[in-house]
Amino acid sequence: MRPFLVEYHRAAATVAADVFAGRVLTQLTSSPQLSPDGNWWWDSTAWRQVSPDKRWWWDGAQWRTFPAKEGSKPAPQSNSDGLLRRVRLRYTGTCILCGAELKKGTFAMYHQPTVTVRCVECATESVNRKPRPLDEGIAGASANREYQRRRAIREERVRRSLGNTLGGLALAIGGDAPSTNAWKRGSIGEAKVAEALRGVEGVRVLSDRRVPHTRGNIDQIVIAPAGVFVIDAKLYRGLISIKDRGGWFQRDERLYVGGRDRSHLADNMTRQVEAVQRVLVSTGARFVAVPVQPVLCFVDAEWSLRASRSYRGVRLAGLRSIKELVTQFRLLNSEDVETLSHILATAFPTR
After folding, report:
1. Is there a domain that residue 215 lies in?
2. In total, how many domains does the chain have?
3. Is 88 found in the same domain as 23?
4. Does 209 share its domain with 260?
5. What are the angstrom distances between the C-alpha of 59 and each of 26, 46, 64, 209, 317?
6. Nearest to 76 by CA among 95, 98, 97, 51
7. Strands 217-224 and 107-111
8. 58, 148: one domain
């Protein structure tokens, strides 16, 4: 009889635990409230995602503010509003939100992390307001200018040293230096990627963008139904493969293109992605959850059968697969794509 009593008490304890858990669950989900970790909001029907700044919740279609009920709205973890400072502009600027021109000497709100300005209070859009022009930039323009500059300097040096006749012959035989030719290939690669994406419906391509207050640039920022994509175009030839160079107890995967280690390309995209993400967060809750995906687009390279299409969080793509990548989901509608395009074009001007 003893084993039977043990099983009986165990079953009774299980039932009691289930009943207690049911009561607790009913209490937790009976009214709108936050989860204990503050990352989810119960709206009486389902658990909803909370924005990273803890000030908004997603209802499945749009971001909403928390109810005014005391204790229901969490305190923000970071004082994002404190990053905006009211200043008198020393230079003419453009509001990142509405695109209005902010003249020198006027007051505006300055956002230091993204080096952008915005109106103190944006004017309401009128019905007859003309749409803002979008500066999409010219793909590969800055790389081509750098190629032409280096080529002119080398040509002048050779002709000054050897004379016009011999110098011209030496230049024709020797051609461009490898370091100079790399800029030309980079310009061609960027142009090919932009041309491939230009025909995709519902996609905006911002080419050759400058990251303010840095020496870096972004080849392409693509705003598409599937989100925002930061693309680094590479005109490389050879087979793409990922090889593990680690030992017995540690993996060390490396990205190879044409037999050369190109792993650093993925690491270099981190700052570009972070710059775009900071701009999206600074605009408010509407676009805070829009994914920003880094992409390495290899124009002329070949793909091995076993090659992965992702490396260290960076998507690997070609001219064909990049079209499928930017349209595989529909997270943004046409209005969102246009709005984001103008915001990012203002935050990252052409070079």
Report:
1. yes
2. 3
3. no
4. yes
5. 21, 9, 7, 34, 33
6. 51
7. unpaired
8. no
| Chain segment 62-110, per-residue pLDDT in tens | 566 666 544 444 433 333 445 778 889 999 998 988 888 899 999 998 8
Same domain, 36 and 162: no
Which two structure tokens, joined as six digits, stand for 343?
């915001």
Taking each helix axis from N to C end, the angle separating 141-162 and 164-174, rounded to the nearest 10 degrees, works out to: 130
Q: Provide the pLDDT for residue 186.
A: 92
Write down how long the chain is.
351
Q: What strand order describes the sheet that includes 47-49?
A: 33-34, 40-42, 47-49
pLDDT tens for residues 206-244?
999 999 888 888 999 999 999 999 999 999 989 998 888
For residue 255, give its domain range: 141-347
* Same domain assignment for residues 152 and 298: yes
pTM (whole model) above 0.70: yes
Report in angstroms the alpha-carbon separations of 223 from 86, 96, 134, 276: 30, 16, 13, 11
pLDDT bracket for residue 155 (50, 70, 90): confident
pLDDT tens string 123-151 = 765 444 566 788 899 999 999 999 999 98
* In-domain check, residue 247: yes
- Domain contains 37: yes
